[in-house]
Specification:
- The complex is a heterodimer of chains A (494) and B (549).
- By secondary structure, chain A is an alpha/beta fold.
- Helix content of chain A is 32%, strand content 16%.
- Chain A contains 13 helices and 17 strands.
- Chain A is globular and about 75 Å long.
- By secondary structure, chain B is of the alpha/beta class.
- In chain B, the strands form two sheets. Chain B has a seven-stranded mixed sheet, covered by helices on one side.
- In chain B, helix 3 runs antiparallel to helix 4 and helix 3 runs antiparallel to helix 6.
- Chain B is flat and about 120 Å long.
- The two termini of chain B are 74 Å apart.
- Classes of the chains: A alpha/beta (494), B alpha/beta (549).
- Chains A and B meet through helix 4, strand 2 and helix 12 of A and helix 11, helix 13, strand 1 and strand 8 of B.
Chain lengths: 494, 549
C-alpha cells in the first residue's frame, strides 16, 4: 500500500470513529463498523453498555419524547400565490390598479422579470374568500380550496413565512436543505439519518412527484439528495408511472431464492472491500442493495389499491386511480404513513404563475384541494394524524402587484420572498390557529416573522429532535439542518 | 491591542491580591512572635516580607483598577474597595520605607522608638487591609456571604400550617419553580451587589427592570425575550448565558422559564403546569396516575429480546434517548406476524413497552391478554386487525392506557363496557370498528372528556362567505388619508389645482395627488407630500398663490 492511499484511509477511518461522543451520531462509528463486519446478521457481537445505540441501528432514539413520528411534506413547487389562496386582503379590492406605494415596497429587490416594469399596479385577488370555523376566530380561505377549508380546524396557518431566496432553485434548495447553495443534505435525509427507518422493508425517505398543470420549473433530484450524509439517506423517488419501482418482478427463470443467494455473494464481496478500504460509500451500497431486494416484496403490496373501499377512493377524488396524479400520490402517502415511512415528500409542480394566474391557479388548486383535505381526514379517522406532521409550503410567495397587464379578469404575479403562507397539521402542532400577520398589501410582515430555519427547528422539535444537536461532521465542521440559526416556535406547539 | 492586554492584566487581580495579604500578615506575625518571646526579629527576613508586600500591593491596586474598568459590579462597593485598596498600597509603601530606614541604623540595632513606630504603622496597614479584603470578597461572593450560614438557621416552617391561620405566603409558580431557577443559575452574578450587565435577577423589580441591553423578558412572548434567547444560544456564542464554565440550566428549567414568560410572567398565582414537582418536560408524556408517586424505574430491556425483535424486522426505538421505555412497531412484519410470534417477541419486553403498534397484523384475540399485562403501555394501535370484543376485554382496568386505535376492527357494542373501564383513556379511534352509533353515543355521554373519533369528521363550518366582488381604485393611499373625503367636499367643483408646482418639494404636479384645502384644490408631486402638507399646512401656505379676495 503506498503512503498516499494509507493517508486517505486514515482520514476515512478517523471520520468513521470520530462520531463517538458527537451528538446523535454517538457511537455511529462503532456501529457502522459493526454492521460492516456483519454484526447485523450475527447479533450479539457487541456488548451493550449504557449510552451505546441499540444494536443493529445507528440511532439512539429521539432526544426527547416526540409528538410526531413521521412527516408528510407537500412541496408546492413554483411558489403558490398566498394572496389568492390563504392571505385574505379584502382592502385591496378598493385599490385595484393603484400603484404599490413606495412606503410599502421600500425599494426592495425584484426579480429581473419585473424590475423593468414602469408601474407596479396592485392586483387584488379575484377569488372570493370564505371564513371557516377554527379554534380562533376563523380562517379565511379562498374559494379555490373549498375542501381544505372544511378541515380548517385541523390546520395551523403561518402567514408570516419569509425566505432569503428570490428564485426557484435557491428557494427550493433553501427550503429543503437550510442553505441556498446546493450540497447540503435534504430535510428528509436529516430525519432518515437522525431517526432511521421505522419499517425495514421501505426507505425512510420517499419522494412522490406530480407534474403540474401550469408553468413548471426544473425539479432537480438533488432537492432530495443526502449531501454529505451517507447515501442511503437520500430520498427514494417512486416513479409516477404504473410501476413505481423498475424491475420489481424477477426475470423469467430466476427464482427469488437465487436472487437472495446472488445478493448474499455480492454483499460478501462488498464487505471484504469495505473492510479493506473502510469507504462509507460501500456500506451505503450494501444497504441499498438490501433495501432494493426488500422493496421488491414490499412495494407491490404498497401500491395495490384493491383493499381500499370505494368511499375512501371517492374521498380523494376521481383522479385517485391515475398513477402520478396528486390524488393518487396523496393516497400513496397515506399508505406509506401506515407502513411507518418517516419522511414522505410530495412535490406538486406548476405553481409559477407569472402570467395568466387566475386560469392556471384554478387548475392547480383543483388538483390538490380535494386530495390534500382527504388525506388529512383519512389520517385523522385512522388515528394516524396524532403522530404524523403535515407541512404544506411553497418556496416563496408571490407579489401583490401584477406582472404584465392587469385587467379585472387577468393578472400575473412575480416571486415574493418577503412574506408567504404555509400550513401545518397533525402531531404536536396546535390545530386550527393562524400565526403571524402581513401588512394590508401582503407585502411585508408586521407580526411574528418566521424564518425557514425556525420552521425546520420547530418541525425537528416535534419529531423529538433538538435541532442544535442533530449534526454531522464534514470537512472539519459540524453541520446542522438549521446551520447556526433556528428558533423553535413554541406558540405553534400543541 | 493594548487595551486587550490591559484587560488581561486586570484579570490577574484575583490572583495577585492574595500576595500582599499573606506577606503583610507574615510581617505582623514576625513582630508578634518577637514581642511574645522577647527576642529580636531578623530584620533581613522582615525586610524581604515588607518590600515584597509593598510591591505586591502596588501591583494588586493597579490590576484592580484595570479590572473595575470592565464594569458589572455594584458601584458603591467598588468605590469603597478601590479606596481601601489604594490606601493599603500606600500604607505598604510607607511601611517598606520605614523598615528600610529602621534597619539602616548605624548602631546595628534599631532604636526602640523606631521599632514601635514601625509596628504601629504595620497595625494601621492591617487595619485597612482587612476591610479592603472584605469588600473585595463582597464584590465576587455577594453581600452577606460570610455570615450567610449563621443567618440561614431559621427553623423550618411547620408542614401543616396551624389550623385557623391562613398560610402567610400564597404559593405561586414564581416562588415554587421560577425563583429557585434564577437563584441557582443566575443570581451568583446578577445580584444587587455584583449586578453583572447592570442586571439583577432577584425579586420582581430587578427581573422586570432588565439590564444594560434593555428588558430581559417580554411577558407573554418568550421568543422575544432576551433572557430566553441568551439561554437558548449555543454554548460557544459570546452572548450565551450563563457563561461557559458556570452551572448551566437544564432543558426542563429553560422550558419552565419559557412557559412562565408565555403565561405573562406572573409573580403571583399558579401557571398551569408549573408546580413544584413540574420542572418536568411537557414533551414527556407521563401517565396521569404516575405523576403523584414516581413509578419505580423500568429496567432496560434484555438485549437478546431486542435482537430477536429486530431479526423479525420489528421496529424498536426508545421513546427518548436514555429511556428504557420502548416504542414497538410491527409495520414491516405485519403480514407474517402470528399470535405465537407476538407472544414470543413481546413477553421479554413486556415491562418496557410504552407504545405498541400491531396495525395490519394477522393476530387474533389470543394475543391480547399479554398486551393487557404490559404495565407501562400508553398507546396501543390495533388498526386493521381482526380483534373482537373478546380481545378488548382483558384491557379493562389498565391504569395507564391513554390512546387506543381500534379503527377497522371487528368489535361490537359489547366492547363499550371494556372501553369505559379504562380510567386513563383520553383518545379513542373507532372508525369502522363495528360499534353502533348508539354505543358510540353512550361512550361520549358517559365519558365526556374522552375524545372519540368514529370517522364522522365534522367539516369546519363556513361562518361567512364573500358575495360578488367589486373592484375599484377608491381606497386612499397610505399617507394621503385626508385626500379622499376632501375630494367630494362642497366647493371642489373643478379639480384644477391653484398651484403650478408642489408646495412641499417644488417639483411638477402629478394630477393623481390632490387635496382640498380651505376650499381650494392643491396639487402635489407624489403620494408623500399631501401627508407632509397636512402635518403643518401653515408652513406651506406661503408657497401657494394668494387666495382670491
Amino acid at each position: 500500500m503506498d503512503s498516499l492511499e494509507e493517508h486517505y484511509l486514515n482520514i476515512t477511518r478517523r471520520r468513521f470513529f470520530g462520531h463517538a461522543g458527537a451528538s446523535i451520531g454517538a457511537g455511529l462509528g462503532a456501529v457502522a463498523l459493526a454492521s460492516l463486519l456483519g454484526a447485523g446478521r450475527t447479533p450479539g457481537a457487541t456488548e451493550p453498555s449504557p449510552g451505546t445505540p441499540l444494536p443493529g441501528s445507528p440511532h439512539t432514539g429521539p432526544h426527547f419524547a416526540p409528538k410526531a413520528k413521521r412527516v408528510i411534506y407537500f412541496h408546492m413547487e413554483g411558489a403558490p400565490s398566498q394572496l389568492d389562496l390563504w392571505d385574505y386582503k379584502p382592502g385591496l379590492r378598493d385599490r385595484f390598479n393603484q400603484d404599490l406605494p413606495d412606503s410599502i415596497r421600500q425599494g426592495q429587490r425584484l426579480t429581473g422579470m419585473t424590475s423593468g416594469q414602469t408601474r407596479f399596479p396592485v392586483a387584488p385577488s379575484i377569488f372570493k374568500f370564505t371564513r371557516y370555523a377554527n379554534n380562533q376566530d376563523g380562517a379565511w380561505i379562498s374559494e379555490l380550496m373549498p375542501h381544505t377549508g372544511k378541515v380548517a380546524n385541523e390546520l395551523c396557518f403561518v402567514h408570516s413565512m419569509h425566505t432569503d431566496a428570490i428564485n426557484h432553485e435557491p428557494g427550493i434548495t433553501f427550503f429543503q436543505t437550510g442553505n441556498q447553495q446546493p450540497g447540503r443534505p435534504s430535510f428528509g435525509s436529516w430525519v432518515s439519518y437522525g431517526l432511521g427507518s421505522a419499517n425495514a422493508n421501505l426507505p425512510a425517505f420517499v419522494v412522490l412527484i406530480t407534474q403540474g398543470l401550469g408553468n413548471m420549473q426544473a425539479l432537480s433530484a438533488r432537492f432530495w439528495g443526502s449531501g454529505f450524509l451517507p447515501s442511503e439517506h437520500q430520498g427514494c423517488k417512486l416513479r409516477s408511472g404504473a410501476d413505481p419501482v423498475l424491475y420489481l418482478n424477477d426475470p423469467q427463470g430466476v427464482k427469488r431464492a437465487d436472487r437472495r443467494a446472488m445478493l448474499d455473494l455480492v454483499t460478501g464481496l462488498n464487505q471484504r472491500e469495505a473492510q479493506r478500504t473502510l469507504d462509507p460509500e460501500i456500506s451505503a451500497r450494501i444497504s441499498q442493495y438490501e433495501m432494493a431486494y426488500r422493496m421488491q416484496m414490499s412495494v407491490p403490496e404498497l401500491t395495490d389499491l384493491s383493499g381500499e373501499d370505494q368511499e375512501t377512493l371517492d374521498m380523494y377524488g376521481p383522479d385517485v386511480t391515475k398513477p402520478g396524479t396528486f390524488a393518487a400520490n396523496c393516497l400513496l402517502a397515506r399508505r406509506l404513513t401506515e407502513r411507518g415511512v418517516r419522511f414522505i415528500q410530495l412535490y406538486m409542480r406548476g405553481w409559477d404563475q407569472h402570467g395568466n394566474l387566475p386560469g392556471e391557479i384554478r387548475l392547480q388548486s383543483k388538483a390538490v384541494d380535494q386530495p390534500q383535505a382527504a388525506l388529512i381526514k383519512d389520517l385523522r379517522r385512522r388515528g394516524l394524524l396524532d403522530d404524523t406532521l403535515v407541512l404544506w409550503a411553497g418556496e416563496f410567495g408571490r407579489t401583490v402587484y401584477s406582472q404584465g397587464t392587469l385587467t379585472q379578469e387577468n393578472y400575473g404575479r412575480d416571486h415574493h420572498p418577503r412574506c408567504f403562507t404555509v400550513w401545518m397539521a397533525g402531531g404536536g402542532i396546535k390545530p386550527g390557529i393562524s400565526y403571524g400577520k402581513t401588512d394590508d398589501y401582503s407585502y411585508n410582515i408586521v407580526e411574528n416573522p418566521v424564518e425557514v430555519h425556525d420552521l425546520h427547528a420547530t418541525m425537528l422539535h416535534v419529531l423529538g429532535v433538538n435541532h442544535e444537536k442533530l449534526s454531522y461532521r464534514h470537512q472539519g465542521r459540524d453541520f446542522r439542518l438549521t446551520d447556526v440559526f433556528g428558533n423553535v416556535l413554541s406558540p405553534l406547539l400543541a | 491591542m493594548l487595551t486587550e492586554w490591559l484587560r488581561v492584566a486586570g484579570r490577574f487581580h484575583p490572583l495577585v491580591l492574595h500576595l500582599p495579604i499573606g506577606l503583610i500578615a507574615g510581617a505582623a506575625l514576625l513582630e508578634i512572635v518577637s514581642v511574645v518571646r522577647r527576642a529580636p526579629v531578623s530584620r533581613a527576613a522582615s525586610s524581604v516580607l515588607v518590600c515584597f508586600a509593598a510591591l505586591a500591593a502596588a501591583v494588586t491596586a493597579g490590576s484592580g483598577y484595570l479590572l473595575q474598568g470592565e464594569g458589572g459590579y455594584d458601584d458603591d462597593t467598588v468605590y469603597t474597595h478601590r479606596w481601601l485598596g489604594f490606601t493599603v498600597a500606600g500604607c505598604a509603601l510607607v511601611l517598606a520605607s520605614l523598615h528600610t530606614v529602621m534597619s539602616r541604623s548605624r548602631s546595628g540595632r534599631p532604636a526602640a522608638r523606631m521599632v514601635w513606630g514601625y509596628r504601629a504603622w504595620l497595625l494601621v496597614t492591617l487595619g485597612f487591609l482587612v476591610p479592603a479584603g472584605h469588600f473585595g470578597s463582597t464584590l465576587t461572593r455577594g453581600d452577606g456571604y460570610l455570615t450567610a450560614p449563621l443567618r440561614d438557621r431559621t427553623p423550618p416552617a411547620p408542614l401543616i400550617p396551624p389550623t385557623g391561620d391562613p398560610p402567610a405566603v400564597v404559593e405561586s409558580s414564581y416562588r415554587l419553580v421560577i425563583a429557585p431557577i434564577f437563584e441557582s443559575r443566575c443570581a451568583k452574578c446578577h445580584n444587587p451587589t455584583k449586578k453583572k450587565g447592570k442586571l439583577v435577577l432577584i425579586e420582581q423589580a430587578g427581573i422586570l427592570a432588565g439590564g444594560k441591553s434593555g428588558p430581559v423578558i417580554v411577558p407573554g412572548k418568550p421568543e422575544q425575550s432576551e433572557l430566553v434567547r441568551r439561554l437558548r444560544l449555543g454554548m460557544t456564542e459570546e452572548d450565551h448565558m450563563p457563561p461557559e464554565g458556570k452551572a448551566q440550566p437544564t432543558d426542563d428549567e429553560i422550558r419552565a422559564l419559557e412557559q412562565w414568560i408565555a403565561a405573562g410572567a406572573p409573580f403571583e398565582g399558579m401557571v398551569a403546569g408549573l408546580t413544584a414537582s413540574a420542572a418536568a418536560p411537557p414533551a414527556a408524556p407521563l401517565p396521569p396516575a404516575t405523576t403523584a408517586a414516581a413509578p419505580p424505574p423500568v429496567p432496560p430491556a434484555p438485549k437478546a429480546a431486542l435482537d430477536r425483535l429486530r431479526e423479525a424486522l420489528v421496529h424498536v426505538e426508545p421513546i427518548s434517548q436514555g429511556s428504557s421505555l420502548l416504542w414497538i412497531d410491527f409495520a414491516a412484519a405485519a403480514k407474517k406476524t402470528s399470535d405465537a410470534d407476538v407472544a414470543a417477541l413481546l413477553e421479554p419486553v413486556r415491562e418496557q413497552v410504552a407504545e405498541l403498534s400491531l396495525a395490519g397484523c394477522t393476530i387474533t384475540d389470543a394475543a391480547m391478554p399479554l398486551i393487557a399485562r404490559m404495565p407501562n403501555l400508553r398507546r396501543l394501535d390495533l388498526r386493521s386487525t381482526p380483534i373482537t370484543d373478546v380481545g378488548v376485554a382483558p384491557l379493562a382496568g389498565h391504569p395507564h392506557l391513554e390512546e387506543l386505535v381500534l379503527a377497522q376492527t371487528k368489535l361490537s357494542d359489547a366492547a363499550a363496557e371494556s372501553l369505559l373501564a379504562l380510567p386513563a383513556l383520553r383518545t379513542l379511534y373507532l372508525w369502522h370498528a363495528g360499534l353502533s352509533e348508539e354505543a358510540i353515543g353512550r361512550l361520549r355521554t358517559e365519558r365526556p372528556s374522552l375524545r372519540v373519533n368514529a370517522g364522522e369528521v365534522a367539516d369546519a363550518a363556513a361562518l361567512e362567505a364573500e358575495q360578488d366582488l367589486k373592484f375599484s381604485s377608491n381606497a386612499p393611499l397610505p399617507g394621503a388619508a385626508p385626500a379622499a373625503p376632501a375630494a367630494s367636499a362642497p366647493g371642489a367643483s373643478a379639480l384644477v389645482p391653484v398651484n403650478a408646482t408642489c408646495p412641499v418639494t417644488g417639483n411638477p404636479l402629478n394630477p393623481k395627488y390632490q387635496i382640498v384645502y380651505k376650499g381650494r384644490v392643491i396639487g402635489f408631486c407624489c403620494p408623500n407630500c399631501p401627508g407632509e402638507f397636512w402635518a403643518d399646512p401653515a408652513k406651506f401656505e406661503a408657497k401657494l398663490p394668494p387666495p382670491p379676495p
